[in-house]
Each structure stands twice: as C-alpha cells, then as structure tokens.
Specification:
Chain B: This is 3-methyl-2-oxobutanoate dehydrogenase (2-methylpropanoyl-transferring). The complex is a heterodimer. Chain A has 2 domains: 300 residues, Rossmann fold, CATH 3.40.50.970; 33 residues. Chain A is 44% helix and 9% strand. Chain A contains 16 helices and 9 strands. In chain A, the strands form 3 sheets. Chain A has a 5-stranded parallel beta sheet with strand order 3-4-5-9-8, sandwiched between helices. In chain A, strand 8, helix 12 and strand 9 form a beta-alpha-beta unit. The radius of gyration of chain A is 26 Å and the shape is globular. By secondary structure, chain B is α/β, with parallel strands linked by helices. Chain B has 2 domains: 215 residues, 3-Layer(aba) Sandwich (Rossmann fold); 126 residues, Rossmann fold (3-Layer(aba) Sandwich), CATH 3.40.50. In chain B, the strands form 3 sheets. Chain B has a 7-stranded mixed beta sheet with strand order 5-4-6-7-9-8-14, with helices on both faces. In chain B, a hairpin with a 6-residue loop joins strand 1 and strand 2. Chain B is globular. Chains A and B meet through helix 9, helix 10 and helix 16 of A and helix 3, helix 4 and helix 5 of B.
Chain lengths: 458, 356
Amino acid sequence: MALICNARSRAARLLPQALSALPVIGRPNAPKSQASLGNEPGRRLASARAGESVSPLSDECSNQVLDFPGGKLMFSPDMRFLSGSTGERVSCYRVLDDNGHRISDNSFQELSEKVAVKMYRDMITLQVMDTIFYEAQRQGRISFYLTSTGEEAINIASAAALSNEDVIFPQYREPGVLLWRGFTLQEFANQCFGNKSDYGKGRQMPIHYGSSKYNYFTVSSPIATQLPQAVGAAYSLKMDKKNACAVTYFGDGGTSEGDFHAALNFAAVMEAPVIFFCRNNGWAISTPTSEQFRSDGVVTRGQAYGIRSIRVDGNDALAVYSAVHMAREMAVFEARPILIEALTYRVGHHSTSDDSTKYRLVDEIEHWRSSRDPISRYRWWLERNGWWCDDAESELRSSVRKELLQAIQVAEREQKPALGELFSDVYDIIPSNLREQEQFLRHTVKKHPGDYPHNVPA
Amino acid sequence: MEMVVRRGMGRGISAARRSFSTSIEAEKPTGEGKPINLFSAINQALHIALETDPRAYVFGEDVGFGGVFRCTTGLADRFGRSRVFNTPLCEQGIAGFAIGLAAMGNRAIAEIQFADYIFPAFDQIVNEAAKFRYRSGNEFNCGGLTIRTPYGAVGHGGHYHSQSPEAFFCHVPGLKVVIPRSPQQAKGLLLSSIRDPNPVVFFEPKWLYRLAVEEVPEHDYMLPLSEAEVIREGCDITLVGWGAQISVLEQACDDAEKVGISCELIDLRTLIPWDKDTVEASVKKTGRLLVSHEAPVTGGFGAEISSSIAERCFLRLEAPVARVCGLDTPFPLVYEPFYMPTKNKILDAIKETVSY
C-alpha cells in the first residue's frame, strides 16, 4: 500500500516535468533540416530519459538498459504514464498570414509566376465549377453533387507540388487534383451526367471521377478504403524504382476507420513512398472532430506509427505547396511515408443531400467563408507580386462560366451508355450467367418498354 | 493419377484410393510427377508464379518463414524479402495493400492465414477489389489479385479455425471463387487463379494440406477456371461438391456402389462464375441431385445450385434436391463429428433420394 502511494505521488510529482520534456514537433521558424527530422529514434530515447529522479535507487535503475526489439531503452523506478496529449498542441505551418503577407524568415518552396498563376486559375475554375454543378443539381439536372468549397488551396496547391507520375488515390473532395492535371470541364460534366462519354460508363454517382491517363484512381464512396491501396501502389513504385510516389487524400472522419491505421502501419513497415494527406475540415457530415477523436488532431498519429508528419494551414496555398513539395522529396528519395494534416474548413454542406445549418452555426460557416478564404488570401499575395489583377479575374471567371455552361449542355444532350455496358467490366470477359441475364433483360425491355428509361440505347 | 487421402480425427486413419478423370486435353498436366501433399503443390505453384513473372509478389502474416501451413517455404530465400514478405497482422491492410499492388500491374498473391479471419478484409474484397474494374469503366483493374486462404474443418479447429465462408464471396459479382480438391488440382487451379485477369479468392482445404498425397507434375501447368469436372461417372444420382468434401463424397459413392447405386460425382472447382451446364447435363441424365458442403446449410452455395438446377431440370427431377451440409450452428469443437456432413449422412441421403 505504502509502495503504491509512494509511486503514485512520485508519478504525480513528475508529471508536469515529464510533459514539459516532451519533444515539440515542427517548431515555428525551425530550419528546414531540423523540421524534417521529426521522429528519429534518438529523440524517443531522449524523452524517455526525461524526468529522471535524483535518488540513488533511481540512478541505479536508470543505468540499467534493456535491449529490446526496436532499440535499447532505460529502466525507470518511476511509475510514470505517458500523457494522453502532447501538452501544447502541435503547431501549424503557414507561409502567408490572413492578409496574404508572407511571414518573415519563413521557409517555403519558391514557385514560378507560371505555376503560381495556374494554381490561382485552377482554384477559381474549381470554385466556379462547384457553384454551377451545385446549381445544376438543385435544378434537378444531375442527381447529386459535392463541393470542395473552402478547400480549393488543398486541392490545387497539393496537386501543383506533385509530378503527374505520382499516383493519386482520392477520397472524393479532391477533384482539383484532376483539374490541375488536365481533366477538362467537359470530362467532369460527362461524369456528372453519366453519359456515354463518362469513363465510368454511367455506373457511379456524380463526382466519382477517375482517369488512368492522369493516374487518378476512380473515386469509391466507402471512406478510407483507398489508404491501404495507396500503400500497395507506392510499394510497386518503389520496386519499379520510379521517381514517383502515391498520394492519398482523406478527411478527419476517415482517420477513425480501420483502413487508416492499417495503411499507416503498413506504410511505415514497408517503407513505402506514400503521402497521406488528411483534409481536417472539422466535420464528418454532422460529426465534429471533438466527437471523432481525442488526440491532437491527426498529425500526432503519424509519430506513433513511426511516420514523419506535419500540420499545415490548409487555407494557405503556399504552405500546402511547400509542405507537399518537401513531403514528396522525402517520400520518393528516402522511400518513406509522410503524413500531412491540413487544417481547413468544409465551407459547403457535406453534399447536396445535406443541410449543415442543422448541426452547425451559420456564423461559423460565414467566418470561414469570409475571413479565412484560401482563394482571397492567395490572390492578395499574387497581386502583391504583380501577377494578377481585377481584369484578369473577371475575364477568367466569365470564360470558365461560359465554358462550363457549354460543357453541361453538351453533356446533357449526349446519349447515355448503351445497355450492354451494364454487363461489361464485371469481369474481363462476360461470363455465361451474365450473357443469359442480358438476353433475358433485353427480352423484358422489349416487352415492357415503358418501364425503362428511353435514353439508354439498347 | 492417384491420390491418397488419409482422414480421421485421431481415431486411426482411414484411407481412400481414387482415380480422376482427365481435364481438358490442352491443359492436361503431362508426365508423371512425384507424389506430394497439397501444401507442397501450393508451394510449387507459388515458386512457378514467382519464377515466371518478375512482377509477382507473395505476402501475408508469417509467410516469410514459410507460413503456418508451410505453403510459402523457401520462397523468401529464393526470391528475396522484397517479393516474399511478412505483413503486419491486419487482414484489411493485407487486402487493401494487395489491391493497390495489383492495380499497378502486379500479381499480388496475398495470404489470409485462416479463412475465419478474412472478415476484416471483407470490405476491401467486396467493395473495392470486386468493383475495381466495373466502377472505373475499365480505366483500372486489380485483376492480378489472388487471395489464398485455408478453410474448412481440421478435426480440432473449433469456431475460428474451421469455417467455410465461401458463400459470402459467391454473392459478389466481380470475384471468382476457386476451391481445389487435391494436390494436382491445387497447383493447376492456383496458377490459373494467379494468372487470371480478375480478382480471385482461392480457398485451400487445410485438412488436406498434409493428408492428401497425389502425383503432381513438376512443370508449369494450369487447369481451367469456371469448368466443373466429372470425376466419377454414374447414372442414378449426381453428387456435387468441392474442396475437402469431395473425398467424403467419394467414400459415399464407394459405399453406395456396394448397395447397387451408381453415383456421378462432380467437383465444381470454381464456385463463381460456376459451370451450370456440366451440372445440368449430369442431372438431366441421372434425374437426381445431392449437394454437399461443410458450410451451414442455410444460405450456403448449395442453395444456389439447388435452385438453379430446379429451374433448369424441373421436369427431369425425380426427387427433391438433397443438401447434406454443415448445421446452422457456429462451428463447434467437441461436436465437430456431429456437425459435419459425414459419409453416412451423405449415404443416407443418397438412398433416400434414389428411393423417393
């Protein structure tokens, strides 16, 4: 009993000391080389040694070293539980302040005017696309839509920092990556309308884009399933000695899925060149992050798996660009996974099937829409560089709008995929049971033509 | 070809000798091989798969040292730890990783240590692997994926080392489900599964890993998928099964013969897409059908066969289709002999069906 009390009081005594000795990850203004050494084994040893007692017994114990799988570690006479938190929250890397001013002596990846302007143009294009497709859904022209509003910087700046050879395993709120790589507004429209030019042959709901040409694996609705797949793809790239990595996107909610944990652990163990990009936008449909996890967000999970991780301001295009650029260098040339947690906000509803004012304050949405808009912040920086102006802005917005309305008209008029496509691609060739079912169905359609949509050609 | 199966639950070993009809001529394994057991046949197939395709990978829990059933013995030494490796203990991770690897144009040969533990991977297999080609309009596919997993009773496996979950996967368009009955079949069907451009779940009868011994040609050969095999011709009743259950059915055929009943025995081999025509042709000849599997009878794949054959052969059937399967209980340890669709249960059902 006495021993327990003693241990408990000693633990209590040492707790604050132990917490203060925990390493701080990603100190603001830390030099790049230091920031990139986030979790070397030596660090863990250093923190384990922290809080040493001065009693002779403790000295004796602390001199004893246990050689255990994973490396040597110290014994301790102190019963000390690691805290459930890191004490102070992990800081968030940013390059631009709220007004688009570059923060002094900040490290960031320089980018050319050409790239910088294309980034901006694509962010605007994505915004206009979201607005118009959202309206098209409201008018009943497409069945469903899901905007990326508020996350334009994440979409475009991350894509800009990658090579087109990097393979993307998206969730569903990252169409900007595909846009950056050259997918046209017509191609987006074709998918949303599920017409015969849709590469997915009208089989999936709108926004489930995919393109082998642009190394963008087709979106699937289940959450986080793409993460372990990205690890497998990354391993393939590594085995083929490609200068490329796999990049997978997901939200804060996705980090609760088993696949998230499976993927991080596999990636660390397999030393796979994969970037895990978490868009922590605060909301998984109606569930806030406070009901999703108790850790300090997502970034802290990386360290537990032995993965270098960074938290970045997701509404700062330059910070996202810089972090992804560096992450890619480390992933590809050091063959290791990297975790990026981008802090942002889902300004739109979850999807067209959702009304987010039912579970969150309109003021909160408005705050992020007006004061923390990633596009305006980036634009101020561009303008200060003399790379953008009002005329360019209005010309761009009107031309994107025009192009998109045209694309929608074309997509809407286009025929649906033929009935036969219902049966193809289940297997590489159509097996006999499906041939039989196809014949039977065609017979039924002939018999009851009124039961079936007329725009699907037989 | 001859195979010897030694079964028995520690109460002495019963032996059954049997002969096999030939497979399709073109794919027929040629030349006499050495007598080897089923795990060695799997091992040979994996050696060949890795040897013939530099983009083939073998991985799963404990496969590095040869696997808990020894199926991957020697592979890591021969092909290196980057192509044959252990994974963390996480089935959904194994399946997801395998899908990603296959989607990049590799042959991903993943092992799930026991079929009882495949359920954490169910979402990856059902929602991801099976739909990968279809949902992308063939922009992408993970056809190079093969998931190997030992299934079925082993005499002492209890709830979690005995199950036969094949029917769950037979409800999933886009997958192929393959189950071999013998060493020679295992090698040829596994090589076909690995090289098939569709994701395949390959169930291996763990009871036969060591007990089934058969001459297996050493060369590279494949047996066709989605083709059932009539392994014994008869005229009174058709028996359909797969995997380890085939040897039990075979013993029932022998005993039925002694009382003057001639059984035709079909090994389905591929459960989806399955070879309805072969079963239909046989039932049209015999007029009777019995299906037998270890999995619980309700919702088992036997129900699908029974229903399909009733549709196709209604006027030819002279008795209701009999199903001799596992009970609708979890797989029980000490009650295993009661749970199992044993020879005498089958024999009784044969007699009842024939005299209906």
